[in-house]
Structures are given as structure tokens and as C-alpha cells.
């Protein structure tokens, strides 16, 4: 029997071993979801909402256990893991309420006709989720699916499946039928092929890299699936000359260094007006130098490890490339590496004198590195910010409302923070433009991708 060994990225110790599902077992889960769909879709919205509320409550009751589990298999600091648990639960609470607001309507038609528009769940859903938010990326997909009347089969990342299994156990304890929420583990390519080729799966939702997302889109074409894709990002952060620099520094750290920079909406390129760059960079480096690197279960840890060696090598290569091309290190550029234990820590790093020829300005870092470039006009900053195929998240800081609205209207990003480095919320639609994805998760918009629309023309 094949198994996946789950290790702690901070210590290298083995946490657990998880059975890998065979292709036949994954297909059996899909069949169970297909068979369970008719009865689940016909349950009242109030009943589904009640079960989702109970699931939410079970998660909140067990938040400390889940937070410790997330820290052990993911590496993020415990205080961040606690925040993720509550963030994940908030999606379940939100969609428990949205379940009761899937409205239809009656539209006036031609003479002697009435048009009745109704909504119903698309059918069984498959979800593929990443390692960096092992709880939130599941609930953000499962909650609207269940609320809409759709069973869901979830494949978590191979490095962080334990959180997924525990979330499912809590769902069952809350009364959600086991065939309605299932978790499968195993080879990503094999399971992805099963999901995309199965005619029983009516929708695929994926969070991960843009290349993998494009591949899944191509493979889903033959069965014409509904798709939701939250893909890569390369977020810009603009600091205008009239910004509150203390606030900008605080919120830059909130955006850039959460989960050691391993989030899709982390600020990756920082553009600062030339008149304030020295002051901003000095303040940022001073505060960043105070961040403590260490084991996530230590309460005072701010920065945990990178998830694996390839992630570490990418970050180190970007730092070295920047330095070779003239970047100046204000703080950081230190590493704690143990190849035998496979643990990789990068101290948070601030770079100045950054230019467009450096790799870090063109490729998502996924690590705790803040590269600072300068601009002279707001149009120059916006143009540089938009100069990427990605359009997931962006940030800007200004105290001038005219400047703020101008930047907002010209940035080509799905999520924008104005004087705010942490814009995510269950109430808001999360998703990107351009090659950063399709559809939205969260908010009223987040349940739409799980619904079909039909209309009935009634002759009178």
C-alpha cells in the first residue's frame, strides 16, 4: 500500500503517514458523490445551512488543535495558523447564510407568457487545493459548493493533507454526510486526470500555479466543465509621496511576510516614490529586522520555514541575481539550512536599488524578500505595476483620494488594497484578472460558479 510521509518543514520530523488512494478508489469517491447529489440538492436550503453552521461551530471549538496541526505540517507561525482557522471557518459561516439566498425570479415575457428563472447546483465538484493555506483553501471551495447543493471531492496538497482530513472529520461530526464531502490523497497528475476526464464531475475548482491551471483547463475541455481557477500572482505595492509611511511599512510587512512570503497575494514588487524611498526603506528594514525566525509552535515566532528545498533555492537564486545586478541588502540575506533534515529558513530580506532587469521583478518569489524600486510619476508606477501577465492582487498607499481613485481605476487586478495590506475576507469576492484565474471565491459572487441557471417559459 502506497503512502505519503508528512514531515514538519521546521524540524524535518515525520508527523504522520497518509494512505495514497488508488485510481479505482478516487473513481469510487466520484461515484459516491454522483449518487449522493440528487438527495443533497433536494434538501432545503435551511437544512444545508444548519449543517454548515454546525460545521463552523465544530471548527471554532477545535481551533487550537487545527492551528497546531497546520503549523506542524505547513510551518507557518502558530499565531498565523490560528488566524487561518478562523478565516477558514468564516467562509463556512458566510455560505451557511448564502445558502438561503439562492434566489430565482419571474420575468415578464411575451403576451400570454411568464418566464420563471430558477437556480440549482451544477452537480458533483472536484477541488484541488494548495499547501500554503491548508484549511482556508478548502473551506473557500467546499462551503459554497455544499451551500449550493453540490457534493465535493477534495484533493489537498501532498505535503499538507492532515488538515483536510481533520476538517472532513469535523464536518461529519456536524452531520454532513460522508458522501457529500470526501478527501482523496495521492499523485496529483493521476488524480487531476481522473477529475478532468470524469463526466460525473461537473465543476473543477483549483488554486495553484498558472501553468498547472492552464493544463487542467485544457484537460477539462472534453467534458466542458465549469471551472474556477485561482492562479499565480506577482503583486505590486505602490507607496506614493503623500503616503503615511508608518502605515505603509506596517501594512507592507502584513502583506509581504505572512507565511514567510508564501502566499499568492504577497507583495512581490514594491514601487516607492523617489522622494520618500530612503525614509520608507529605512523604516521597513528596521521593522523587518525585528521579525523572529524560528519554529512556528514558539509563540514569539514571526517567520517560519519555507516549505521545501525547491522553494528555498528559488528564493536564494533571486536574491543572488539581484545582488549581482546591483541591488543593496538592507537587512536579511541570511539562511539556516539543514539538507539532512530538509529544513530551510530564510531570514526576511529587504533589497533596495532594484531594477527591472532583475529576476525578482518578473517571477513570483514565494519567499520573505521585499525588493524596492523607485518611480517619479504615478503613471510610471501604474504602468510598471501592470507590466505582468498576472492580475491577482495589488496594493497602494496614498492619503489623497483623487490619487487613490486614479490608481484603483487603472490597476488591472482583481483584489486591491488601498492603505490595506490584508484585504481578504469571506464577504468579498477573491480572484484575479488576466492569467491569475477565472471566477471569484467569497462574497455573494462566490456561490455563483456552483450554480446553473434554467428558465421555464409558461404559456398562459
TrEMBL record:
InterPro entries for the chain: Ald_DH/histidinol_DH, Ald_DH_C, Ald_DH_CS_CYS, Ald_DH_N, Aldehyde_DH_dom, Aldehyde_DH_Superfamily, Succ_semiAld_DH
Location of the Aldehyde dehydrogenase domain: 6-455
Membrane-spanning intervals of the chain: none
Domain of life, per lineage: Bacteria
A Pfam entry, by short name: Aldedh
GO molecular function per UniProt: succinate-semialdehyde dehydrogenase (NAD+) activity
GO biological process terms, semicolon-separated: gamma-aminobutyric acid catabolic process
Keywords: Oxidoreductase
PANTHER family per UniProt: SUCCINATE-SEMIALDEHYDE DEHYDROGENASE, MITOCHONDRIAL (PTHR43353:SF5)
Family: Belongs to the aldehyde dehydrogenase family.
Name used for this protein in its record: Succinate semialdehyde dehydrogenase
Organism of this sequence: Salsuginibacillus halophilus
Amino acid at each position: 500500500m502506497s503512502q505519503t510521509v508528512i514531515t514538519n518543514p521546521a524540524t524535518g520530523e515525520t508527523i504522520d503517514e497518509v494512505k495514497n488512494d488508488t485510481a479505482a478508489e478516487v473513481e469510487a469517491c466520484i461515484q459516491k458523490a454522483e449518487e449522493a447529489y440528487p438527495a443533497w440538492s433536494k434538501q432545503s436550503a435551511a437544512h444545508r445551512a444548519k449543517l454548515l453552521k454546525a460545521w463552523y461551530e465544530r471548527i471554532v471549538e477545535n481551533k487550537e488543535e487545527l492551528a497546531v496541526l497546520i503549523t506542524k505540517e505547513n510551518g507557518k507561525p502558530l499565531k498565523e495558523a490560528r488566524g487561518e482557522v478562523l478565516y477558514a471557518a468564516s467562509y463556512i459561516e458566510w455560505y451557511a447564510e448564502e445558502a438561503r439566498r439562492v434566489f430565482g425570479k419571474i420575468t415578464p415575457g411575451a403576451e400570454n407568457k411568464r418566464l420563471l428563472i430558477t437556480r440549482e447546483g451544477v452537480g458533483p465538484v472536484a477541488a484541488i487545493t494548495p499547501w500554503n493555506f491548508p484549511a482556508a483553501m478548502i473551506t473557500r471551495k467546499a462551503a459554497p459548493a455544499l451551500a449550493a447543493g453540490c457534493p465535493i471531492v477534495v484533493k489537498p496538497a501532498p505535503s499538507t493533507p492532515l488538515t483536510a482530513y481533520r476538517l472532513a472529520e469535523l464536518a461529519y461530526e456536524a452531520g454532513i454526510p460522508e458522501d457529500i464531502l470526501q478527501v482523496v490523497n495521492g499523485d496529483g497528475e493521476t488524480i487531476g486526470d481522473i477529475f478532468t476526464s470524469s463526466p460525473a464531475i461537473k465543476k473543477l475548482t483549483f488554486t495553484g500555479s498558472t501553468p498547472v491551471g492552464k493544463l487542467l483547463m485544457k484537460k477539462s475541455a472534453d467534458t466542458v466543465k465549469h471551472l474556477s481557477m485561482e492562479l499565480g500572482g506577482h503583486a505590486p505595492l505602490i507607496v506614493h509621496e503623500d503616503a503615511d509611511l508608518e502605515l505603509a511599512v506596517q501594512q507592507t510587512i502584513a502583506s509581504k511576510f505572512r507565511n514567510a512570503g508564501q502566499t499568492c497575494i504577497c507583495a512581490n514588487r514594491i514601487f516607492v516614490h523617489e522622494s520618500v524611498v530612503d525614509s520608507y526603506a529605512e523604516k521597513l528594514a528596521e521593522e523587518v529586522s525585528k521579525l523572529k525566525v524560528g519554529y512556528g509552535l514558539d509563540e514569539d515566532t514571526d517567520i517560519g520555514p519555507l516549505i521545501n528545498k525547491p522553494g528555498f533555492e528559488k528564493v536564494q537564486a533571486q536574491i543572488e541575481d539581484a545582488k549581482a545586478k546591483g541591488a543593496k541588502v538592507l537587512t536579511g540575506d541570511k539562511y539556516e539550512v539543514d539538507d539532512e533534515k530538509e529544513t530551510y529558513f530564510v531570514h526576511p530580506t529587504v533589497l533596495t536599488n532594484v531594477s527591472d532587469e532583475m529576476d525578482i521583478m518578473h517571477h513570483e518569489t514565494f519567499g520573505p524578500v521585499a525588493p524596492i524600486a523607485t518611480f517619479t510619476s504615478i503613471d510610471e508606477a501604474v504602468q510598471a505595476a501592470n507590466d505582468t501577465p498576472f492580475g491577482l492582487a495589488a496594493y497602494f498607499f496614498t492619503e489623497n483620494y483623487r490619487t487613490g481613485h486614479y490608481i484603483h481605476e487603472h490597476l488591472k487586478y482583481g483584489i486591491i488594497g488601498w492603505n490595506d495590506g490584508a484585504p481578504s475576507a469571506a464577504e468579498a469576492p477573491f480572484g484575479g484578472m488576466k492569467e491569475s484565474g477565472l471566477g471569484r471565491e467569497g462574497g455573494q459572487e462566490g456561490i455563483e460558479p456552483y450554480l446553473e441557471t434554467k428558465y421555464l417559459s409558461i404559456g398562459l
